[in-house]
Specification:
The protein is 39% helix and 12% strand. By secondary structure, it is of the alpha+beta class. It has one domain (2-79). It has a two-stranded parallel sheet with strand order 1-4.
Length: 82
């Protein structure tokens, strides 16, 4: 995964949301993956990346949307490990 993130284009890099179980509360909490850049992990950066990709689509007209979908594909791979 680290190699894929390092070698991918910025707009096509996978995103990691890593969770661990808190011993005291038994709840799943965010965890940091060492050597993965902060913009490619966590829920906050994921929201920013999705806004950058989907925001223009949401604000577009139907004709604009159809043209964008025909011209390009929008994809941010997301892998979750529990």
């Amino acid at each position: 995964m680290k190699q894929e993130i390092g070698s991918s284009q910025n707009d096509k890099k996978p995103h990691i949301v890593d969770l661990k179980q808190d011993v005291a509360t038994c709840e799943l909490v965010p965890d940091i993956v060492n050597s993965v850049s902060p913009e490619c992990q966590g829920t906050g950066p994921l929201v920013v990346r999705l806004d950058n990709k989907l925001g223009p689509l949401v604000r577009a007209t139907k004709k604009d949307l159809e043209k964008q979908f025909k011209d390009a594909q929008v994809c941010i791979p997301l892998q979750v490990y529990l």
